[in-house]
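can u pls check wat happens w/ magnesium ion
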Amino acid sequence: MRIGILSLRRTLYSTRRLREAALARGHEARVIDYLRCTVQVSTRRPAVFYRGRPLELDAVIPRVGSTHTFYGTAVVRQFEMQGVVTANNAGCIVLARDKLRSMQVLAREGVDLPETGFAHSVLDSQGLIDRVGGAPLIVKLVAGTQGVGVVLAGSNAAAESVISAFRQLNADILVQEFIEEARGGDTRALVVGDRVVAAMRRQAPAGEFRSNLHRGGSARRVRLEPAEEALAVRASRTIGLGVAGVDMIASPRGPLILEVNASPGLEGIEGATGVDVAGEIVDYLERLAEGQER
Ligand code: ADP
Ligand code: MG
């Protein structure tokens, strides 16, 4: 197959690994900077141009960064219109990027989540706090990643000040029950198609509740409980993704979904587990192209 890896930089670990995995399986593989793609929206001849020439691809692996979701997904959508197979659909990438909407969709489909509320106005902050069970609680920037913008508020007064400070900056936030029992640990499952291909347990350093590797967390390979595995696959499929990084947290009422990521980094998970995740993604693309998967 002629595979395009839609990524801004060929030197990024995940991009490099996906290209290697595709080449190792005998495919043609090109890294394509989607910001340099020009789209021809035509009824008769839709096309994507790159460096002035139409791109002829059989499959794409989108690695669209969160700052360029709008343009990146437009390019992915255009490939879809041409019948090019994609690891993740444009619409599903957009949904995964919108934390509030994806939590609503997951909740509607009965996927377990921490109790979560959000509001635009601060008029009912106390109500919001009470309804997720009161302090200690988590306040999160909807647009945050890598643990930045995730705050643990120890008291209702602290929660109220954090909420009003974020709102003053016009930031969208959500308020969530704090799962203390997780003790700074969470689980990342890499779901490809209908299967968890790799999973790691991440643990926050002492004195920190956020387990993000960027926050100094450590990771180790883990064999998932059947309930975690089923939850991860269900969450990924509910959002509609073919490739997803699903974050879960252990609670007394079972595992809960924290977030579903459409462009999961491969470095941490391949490093911790030794699994060839990039190869699994390319294998999945092959099955998609042959109509053996959806
Ligand atoms: P980000 O998108 O910035 O990674 P997350 O929602 O994944 O934001 O939160 C970052 C980390 O904070 C999680 O990996 C987890 O360790 C911790 N965390 C997040 N939400 C909760 C919660 N409700 N209860 C306990 N810990 C949480
Ligand atoms: Mg996270």
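Residues 226-239 form the longest helix (14 residues).
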